[in-house]
Structure formats: C-alpha cells, structure tokens
Design a protein that fits this description.
This protein is an alpha/beta fold. Helix content is 48%, strand content 17%. The longest helix has 21 residues, at 218-238. 48% of the residues are buried. The structure holds glycine.
Length: 375
C-alpha cells in the first residue's frame, strides 16, 4: 500500500510504514513520541555517519522529551562482525539506568549499521524495538526495508543473523542528495536488480534518468527511492522469510557475494559486485534462451550508463583470484543460498520477471565468468 511519500510493509500486527521525504531526521523525535510508548532512545551508528548526524538526531529526540544515548562503532564492512557486535552489545547492556523492553534502538547509517544495529535490537533482551534512518541509497532501497539483520563471519557474508522487522523507517531524502557518486552507484545496482526482476518500466526510468540520478537531483532520486521501496515492500509483504518470492532479490548476488569475498574487504563495493553478478546471470539466461539477447544487452548498457562495472576490465585493481572460476566456485558453494553441491541462481525471464533455478550447471557458470573476463 502506498500513500503520498509513504509505503506500508504489510505484515499483519507487525506492519510498519516507510516514509520518504526531505527533512525527516529533524522529525524523528515527534514521530517516536507520537507513535510509541517509549521515553528512551539509543542511537547506534558508525564513526563516519555519527560525526555528521548524531547531534541533529539527538536534538530532535531530546526536544521531544526522550532520554537519548548514542553508541558508535568504526565505519566499514570489515567491522560488521561478532567482535563489533560484542562491543556494542556490552555497551548497550552496561548503560545506567539499564535498558528495558520499551527502549527504542535507532539505527542511523548505511547497510552495515542497519544490519548490525538491527541484529543488536533482535537479540538484546531477546528483542527490543528499533527504527531505521538509512543514510545511503543502498540502505534506503534495500537493507533498511524487510527486517534482514546480521553480521559477516569468516566463512562468508551475512552468515549470522535474524529476521527482525523495524517499527518504522524514515528515509530523509535530503541526506541522500549529498552522497558522493560512488555511494549512489552502490545503491543503484540494487535498483537495477529490482527493475529486472519485477518492473521493466523502472529499468526504462533508470535508463532515461541516469544522469539526473547520478547528479543526485532531488526529484528523480525521490521517485527512484519510492518506486524501489514499493517493489521491496510488495515482495517482503508476500514472503517475509524468503520461502519463495523474496529469493528473487538475490538476483546478481550468487556471484556478487563470491566476488566480494574473493576480493577481500574493500576490494570492491557491494554494488560493483552485484553489477557483475547481474551481467553474468543475464548471460546465462540469454544462453539458455530464457531472455532475449537484446534484453541482456539492455541491462548491461543501463549498468554501464550508471558507471557500474560490467566486465573484469572495469575493475583493474581486483585481486586475480576474484577473476578465476576455480577460485570463485568454492566460495559460491559456501554461500548460504547455495543448496548442496549445486549453485542456485536467480535468472531473468525477460525484463521484469525472474525465477530461481536450481539446475544451473557449473559449465554455464564457467562460461559466464569467461564472458566477464573477455567482453
Ligand atoms: N536484500 C535482499 C532481501 O532483503 O531479501
């Protein structure tokens, strides 16, 4: 369900709204005071975002009469782990007076903060409420909506986690218009993902507005966010726990996660990895006759227009093992979405439609990686 500037995630008694408009951070205090029976808010953020926004968010919460405390951890995906979780959790539980079940966690940041703060909220006192203020496009259109929370383990990304839905998501579009282009591109890969699996008209919108979106123009950016949140909301409302439909959101991620792991932390961004993964999946789909070659080429050219990588040559600093089928294969097999012995892929069936395929042969994957190496 969507109203002007807000979209509902429909999960019965656990339903919540995602609000999308400029200036929402300053309204966080009034939202909390009006909607929830809480007098206390704990902001969880990282060192980068915290330095920019903890103060204005604290001011908004305090002005609304809440008692506020902030906990920041070092920024970066390499800190989304059990060690950071332990530090944040011990600080949270060590607060005086102690937190209770009416304490509201406020997640302030990008995908890493959202995943970690959400997992802290899922597990502190066996679960406390949290709200989310995403500060990156990636977090706004994907990570902040749908309740996936978690941490990376040495064995792979996101292998520790829980489903724990937020009570409210506030996307302050003003924060996103100041993002550097590389940060925007990180989120744009997920927007292309949504378009390919659910909405061909969104792909046309992205293709047409690519320069305006990359320039962070407020109008196109707000429309992009609303359209993507609407897609994510419909999928999560239909399949919260990824039993069927939600698996489509892993389009581009089988190879993408493997590339990220092989490249090492900081080797390439999530958006870059997913972009390469989507090109590979389109290549396999076109070779199978599931998708017309011109449609696969269109996805590739939209990604290129967003300055996302579509071949290994676009990633000259990437570690050599991340280009190698033999090195990538065991990592793909370790992905938690991989069933025994086979690598599962989401493949497009044209534009705006996709399905989960369990029968993708290793030879098809090898050819797709060869394509990324040659093209
Ligand atoms: N990011 C994929 C999902 O939320 O299911």
């Amino acid at each position: 369900m969507a109203e002007a500037g807000k979209i509902k995630i429909d999960l019965g008694p656990r339903s919540y709204w995602v609000h999308v408009r400029p200036g929402l951070m300053a309204r966080t205090g009034p939202f909390l005071a009006e909607m929830f029976n809480t007098r206390r808010a704990i902001i969880i953020t990282d060192s980068t975002v915290g330095a920019l926004y903890t103060r204005p968010l604290q001011d908004s919460l305090r002005t609304a009469g809440l008692n506020v405390h902030a906990i920041a951890f070092p920024a970066g995906e390499e800190h989304k782990n059990l060690a950071t979780y332990n530090v944040v959790m011990e600080r949270l539980l060590g607060l005086n007076p102690p937190i209770d079940r009416r304490t509201m966690i406020v997640s302030l940041g990008g995908g890493v903060v959202g995943d970690l703060a959400g997992f802290v909220a899922a597990t502190a006192l066996r679960g406390v409420d949290f709200i989310s203020l995403p500060t990156t496009l990636l977090a706004a259109v994907d990570a902040s909506v749908g309740g996936k929370t978690g941490l990376d383990a040495q064995a792979g990304k996101n292998l520790v986690g829980a489903f724990h839905q937020p009570r409210l998501v506030l996307i302050d579009t003003t924060l996103l218009t100041t993002l550097p282009a590389a940060q925007l591109r990180n989120g744009l890969a997920e927007c292309v993902k949504h378009a390919v699996v659910r909405d061909a008209t969104l792909l046309n919108f992205i293709a047409e507005k690519a320069p305006a979106i990359l320039a962070a123009q407020p109008g196109p950016l707000a429309e992009l966010i609303l359209r993507n949140v609407a897609i994510k909301a419909a999928i999560v409302s239909a399949d919260e726990h990824e039993k069927s439909l939600r698996a489509l959101l892993n389009f581009g991620h089988t190879l993408g996660h493997a590339l990220e792991t092989a490249a090492g932390y900081g080797g390439l961004s999530h958006g870059q990895a997913v972009s390469m993964g989507m090109v590979a999946a389109c290549h396999i789909a076109a070779a199978r006759g599931l998708m017309h070659a011109t449609h696969a080429a269109k996805v590739r050219s939209v990604l290129e227009s967003l300055k996302l990588p579509v071949r290994f040559a676009d990633l000259p600093t990437l570690d050599a093992k991340a280009r190698d089928f033999q090195a990538l294969l065991p990592i793909m097999g370790r992905d938690k979405k991989a069933a025994r012995g086979t690598v599962r892929w989401i493949l497009p069936k044209g534009l705006g439609d996709a399905a989960l395929f369990e029968d993708v042969k290793l030879e098809e994957v090898r050819k797709a990686i060869e394509y990324l190496n040659l093209s």
